[in-house]
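Need the bound structure for cytidine-5'-monophosphate, inputs here:
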Amino acid sequence: MIGQEKKTAWNNGGPEGKRWLQQRIFSIKTLSLVVLAVQTSTMVLLLRYSRTSSAENHQQYIITTAVLLSEILKLTLSLGFLHIETGKVAKVTFDRLYRDVVLNFWETLKLAIPACLYVVQNNLLFIALSNLDAATYQVTYQLKILTTAIFSWVILGKRLTPLHWLSLCFLMLGVSLVQVESSTWNDNNSSIKASEAKGPLGDSDPLPDSEDAPPPDVNEAHPNTEVSWLLGIFAVFVSCISSGFSGVYFERLVKKGTQPSLVIRNIQLGLFSIVFAVIAVSSDWSSIKEGGFFQGYTLTTWGVVLIQAFGGLIVSVTMKYADNILKGFATSLSIVMCTLVSWLVFGDAAPSTQFIIGTTIVISSTVLYGFAPQATAASQIRGSHVPSTDSPHKVQLRKRSMSDIV
Ligand code: C5P
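Answer from helper R.:
Posting the output first, comments after.
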């Protein structure tokens, strides 16, 4: 009865139906943002742990192989979702793939750009976490909110109020404080590291261990921790630009309408991602020939691959049902979780006052952004048909509070 009423209201396009639809979208949006916050924290901590434990065993897994595996897993999962969506009839699934991916080649080709950028970014993520501690990485990576806002403005025509921009400036201030603190911390630890053979990841981390800095050659590759820190920060900066652009580009594609199916878009993205990930793997060919594709793999490495793949799918859901800037806020929550777990579980140094101030500013600026009222013509994606913050319900959603985010 109630369901019927809702259906009728929705069919009539009445306020009841709109509210019902809004609630539905709101719940998918909220859930995806919460899951993303938890996934990001788990991913960062597990990745860091995977490097720490493999460094202890003196055998490193090859970063590009892990990225390739997670791309393959993501594509497999997306194909599985499509199969479920088409009623588990293989012929229908193949027909849909042929029609939407092969025949619709130009639409598919559009995904080559974010696919290439994401593969580079995913490799940089491993490099960054090999050279920075988890909390510094997380906070610095928040700069992607700024790059995302700029790309949202340029590509989507999303208008931000001065309060939004102010909160973004605060965000940068907070990030800078954390960086300065981290830089000083690394300098101070250089001497300790020399005598105790400890790495820039903290006292439980023997040495950085990415492909760019395998333990036996670490001193040749990075004679001091400052170089290692700079490399990590550089990797994060490039990732911020890539993340902002690719995210907004993908958001536009899934909201614009010619092919709004998230599953199909993920399959299109996955096909190109695998091609680029294979190219990245080929650059490690000599190491793979020597030690094998799965050298250095532990259970934790497989966990990282799994969570990375799962995270990619969650990210795509947040882009479709929320937006990229809100996604940034959700991941900022994971900073708090990461810092606490890093300190309490991994035994990292307790956060210094400056670090705490910087992190507080970062988090406060995200709250400020969430509470700031939207610009009158805000959140309009040119040509968008999809309800989200950019929906016909934007008048109501404009009044959103932080409860939208969490
Ligand atoms: O840090 P950022 O939020 O930009 O990371 C996005 C992540 O989500 C990347 O690892 C990217 O590969 C993944 N992604 C995905 N599928 C999408 C969009 C993003 O797997 N449709």
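Comments: The CA atoms of residues 142 and 249 lie 19 Å apart. The first helix runs from residue 2 to 12.
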